[in-house]
Amino acid sequence: MSSSTHATLGVRQAQKLKTRQALLDAALRLLEEQSLSSLGLREVTRVVGVAPAAFYRHFRDMAELGVALVEESLGSLHVMIRAVLAEQQEAEEVIDRSVEAVAGHVRRHPAHVRFVARERHGGVRAVREAIAAELERFGDEVAAALAAQEVSQGWSDEDVRMLAGLYVDHLVMTASAFLEASPEEERAIADTAGRQLRLISLGRRHWRAA
Amino acid sequence: MSSSTHATLGVRQAQKLKTRQALLDAALRLLEEQSLSSLGLREVTRVVGVAPAAFYRHFRDMAELGVALVEESLGSLHVMIRAVLAEQQEAEEVIDRSVEAVAGHVRRHPAHVRFVARERHGGVRAVREAIAAELERFGDEVAAALAAQEVSQGWSDEDVRMLAGLYVDHLVMTASAFLEASPEEERAIADTAGRQLRLISLGRRHWRAA
DNA sequence: TCCCGTGGCAAACAGTTGTTTACTGAATCC
DNA sequence: GGATTCAGTAAACAACTGTTTGCCACGGGA
User: Which of A99, A100, B111, B117 is disulfide-compatible with A121, CB 3.0–4.6 A?
Assistant: First the structure.
């Protein structure tokens, strides 16, 4: 396995990356049931099966590991958002597709989503800031996509950006709602999220048209 | 001071309540810079100036203390929400008043707001559930107020409830945005929040009217 | 082939943690 | 006013924490 990294990086760096990833994976798993500021370095190395001191070969802090986890977690989300934004369809249809995409993402990467929701306002400054910065980039991207749609003609940049912010916040809210939901509650959550988006989209179409 | 508690409770219980409150206050202060799951019992008692074992006279756990903090924190928010809902005015005006009320609340009780935002998705199950339950009650209350307005005629209960949920989520988002904002950013945040509410209100007025 | 760079290790460090124990002294009850 | 309840104490417990030190083994360039 991973013969490609073997070829391009050499055994040495490949091994290093491997244990680094193992540390990230172990941390992410442990973070399902606690928050970053209470996660110990020894706890992580113990799960990986590596000496405590080895941790420092990869991260200075747990905070630094946290920031790395932010990139990993929001990276996958970023891909999903791009995919949704790329589809140009009828407004009614794109809503259901979006909600479905979010639900699928949460089902596929629950630990990532939980981590972001938990640490977005968590106790580690560096991680909070990393998440905020990344979500702001999402907002900009959504804003750009919205501005390109015909519905947004005559809108100020500021108004487009505030709508984008509303969408991004709603996305995060919906994702974390899916997280804590039992399978039979999922339908109801998707339903509510869809109606909320429809209401927002309705407000959008009438924005300063009256 | 507090002669009333003296009179009704006796010196004994009054003293107990006093140190209990001191524990809550100390914890809330410490939680400005870390999250509950990393807050130690000794840390709290040390600030209060009391022996570690004294903690157990008031709480079984840090989790139990956390639940008590939820009641305290959301209690004050509850008062504010009721006040806003009580005013029956023109839609345009109530929006600005609401945003102003939220801003004032955050300025007055920053630690409470931070605690709720942080622990809503935090690492302590009992606290998460307490917050979720309380926010759901807020949602019900908002829904009842919305249903009583003429704009909501012909709306299903479910639709009213989803709109209420949107408002509550938006309130929490806005509050935590105010939290991290520098004084000069406050205006911009209030502005954006106001516009978002206006757009939602616009969508509300056109809901299934077309 | 030899040598350097380096990822990982074992051990020891001083601090800290939650929890239990037996206790004291003052408010309360009868 | 004597007995009792009980909030708070001091001390000890084993278990854990992050960090430093010197060391080894081995991959990669010369």
Answer: B117
Three-state SS at A114: helix
Closest CA to A163 of A189, A144, A190: A144
Q: If phi over 0 gives left and psi between -120 and 50 gives alpha, with beta otherwise, what is residue A9?
A: alpha
pLDDT in tens, B58-89: 999 999 999 999 999 999 999 999 999 998 77
How do residues B13-26 score in pLDDT, each as one tens digit? Answer: 999 999 999 999 99
Nearest to B38 by CA among A117, A122, A9, A86: A122
Of B38, B118, B206, the CB nearest to A202: B206
**B35 contacts A192? CB cut-off 8 A:** no
Q: Is this model's pTM higher than 0.90 or not?
A: yes
Contact indicator for B31, B39 with CB cutoff of 8 Å = yes
Nearest to B200 by CA among A163, A176, A92: A163
| DSSP-assigned states of every residue in B155-194 | --HHHHHHHHHHHHHHHHHHHHHHHH--HHHHHHHHHHHH
Phi-psi region at A122: left, alpha or beta (left = phi > 0; alpha = psi -120 to 50): beta
The rounded distance, in Å, linking the Cα atoms of A47 and A57 is 17
Give yes or no for a contact between B133 and B125, defined as CB atoms under 8 angstroms apart. Answer: no
Size of interface A-B (CB pairs under 8 A): 97
Which residues make up the interface with nucleic strand C when CB must lie under 7 A? Answer: A 12, 15-16, 18-19, 49-54, 57-58; B 10-13, 40-43, 46, 52-53, 55-56, 61-62
* Phi and psi, residue B105, nearest 5°: -65, -45
